[in-house]
Amino acid sequence: MSHKASQADSTQMETINQGEKSMKSELLTKRDAAITNDEENVRARAYELYEVRGRIDGHAEEDWLQAEGEVAGGNERKAVRASTSRITVKIVGEA
């Protein structure tokens, strides 16, 4: 590939990358933000598990899967609490 062709490819990739960056904020929805937040929680918990194990390598996948389960379980518990915490009040008038 010639130097000129390489520069053209590089410029094209920069344009694509800039376009992706500008689109991200527009396309980020509440659901996407929740997913991003969950992923961050999984990362943080997996790292905690790694540290608790004494920073011993070779258990990254195990730590990640455990962290995913814990985060997902926490979200399910929050959803159940939210759905069961609604109180229905019936006001009965005087006879």
Helix content: over 70%
Low-pLDDT segments: 19-23
Radius of gyration: 24 Å
Number of helices: 3
Termini, distance in Å? 92 Å
Overall geometric form: elongated
In this structure, how is the largest beta sheet organized? none
**Succession of helices and strands:** HHH
User: Which structural class do you get from the secondary structure elements?
Assistant: mainly alpha
In round numbers, the mean pLDDT is 74
What's the count of strands? 0
**Roughly what fraction of the amino acids lie in strands?**
under 5%
Describe what you observe in this structure.
The protein is elongated and about 70 Å long. α2 (30-52) packs across α3 (60-84). The chain contains three helices and no strands. Helices cover 77% and strands 0% of the residues. The chain has a domain at 30-90. It is mostly helical and 95 residues long. The protein has helices at 3-27, 30-52, 60-84.
